[in-house]
Amino acid sequence: WVEQDPMEILNSVYECVEKTCEKMNELNINIANIRAIGVTNQRETTVVWDKTTGEPLYNAIVWLDLRTQSTVERLLKRIPGKNKTFSKFKTGLPLSTYFSAVKLRWLLDNVDEIKQAVEEQRAMFGTIDSWLIWSLTGGKNGGIHCTDVTNASRTMLFNIHSLEWDPDLCKFFDIPMEILPNVRSSSEIYGLMVCFPVFESGALTGVPISGCLGDQHAALVGQMCFQDGQAKNTYGTGCFLLCNTGQKTVFSEHGLITTIAYKMGKDKPAFYALEGSVAIAGAVVRWLRDNLGIAETSEEVENLAAEVGTSYGCYFVPAFSGLYAPYWEPSARGIICGLTQFTNKNHIAFAALEAVCFQTREV
């Protein structure tokens, strides 16, 4: 189970805004020069909140979370031939614990407060971008409930061709469409920042929020991969290789997913990408530090590996959350093999770093 407190995420954004504005004042930069605000976020992470109180109804279920494995298995039984890729040509995605629809299904099945809020038409669903934009534009006092095409394309409820929520998929997952956010482009004015009690200065009140991209799409844009065939790979908790395929959807026969790369304005076309998602990259370094305790800091892991310069035949498959691309095997679990009496923590550190390379190469 991997969850986060949505209020903590929101407060960290408030704090970030406050500290940034303070810093700019110290540097004698006029904050009136800030013309627009953009939002980027971890994708797939699912929040349901109450539109009358503005409070989350449960912790956010994070993309890496595996509690939905039984939900996925139950849904698979309803698909002819248990075909995991049944919605691939609509959504670009396989049925997996990774995407938001199954997390939302779990919440509707298991959290009474959410069930009740849906019945009483108080519930709103969103990924982190929607939760932030709604809260920052006024929350229960007129907040804007929206998402952008990139985040919508990670829910398994969105048709990546028509760029609309898909009624058939909502029916399949039994998700009421009225709780879903409005889908907008990645670059348009969604709403204006509202002054909050937590802002002592209300520094950015009235500044438009006018950009929204899921983190991996934002990295693709940030690296200026605007040409068909240009790609970026980023290494964080997980590891994500995205390749721009232009204005056409390309469907992989080898376990990559098809996603919307960006849509730069209401009347602009959507661009697409092929993505290879690796669940565990940097997280394996954190695991060595926090769970095995072979290093005090993440940096130390690199030094341990450098001391031996080889894994000496030791291999580490960090399938802590199942395997994502190209296998989509949720029941896979981590394994360290090739151990001999000679193997020590340095070799394991080396094998862990090498695992990031192997997974990237495979994608």
TrEMBL record:
Residues 232-362 form the Carbohydrate kinase FGGY C-terminal domain. One of its GO terms (cellular component) is mitochondrion. Residues 1-222 form the Carbohydrate kinase FGGY N-terminal domain. It is an enzyme of class 2 (transferase). GO terms for biological process: glycerol catabolic process; glycerol-3-phosphate biosynthetic process; triglyceride metabolic process. InterPro entries: ATPase_NBD (IPR043129), Carb_kinase_FGGY_CS (IPR018483), FGGY_C (IPR018485), FGGY_N (IPR018484), GK1-3_metazoan-type (IPR042018). GO terms for molecular function: ATP binding; glycerol kinase activity. Pathway: Polyol metabolism; glycerol degradation via glycerol kinase pathway; sn-glycerol 3-phosphate from glycerol: step 1/1. Keywords: ATP-binding, Glycerol metabolism, Kinase, Nucleotide-binding, Transferase. Gene3D superfamilies: 3.30.420.40. It catalyses: glycerol + ATP = sn-glycerol 3-phosphate + ADP + H(+). Belongs to the FGGY kinase family. PANTHER family: GLYCEROL KINASE (PTHR10196:SF69), SUGAR KINASE (PTHR10196). This is Probable glycerol kinase. It comes from Nicator chloris. The gene is Gk_0.
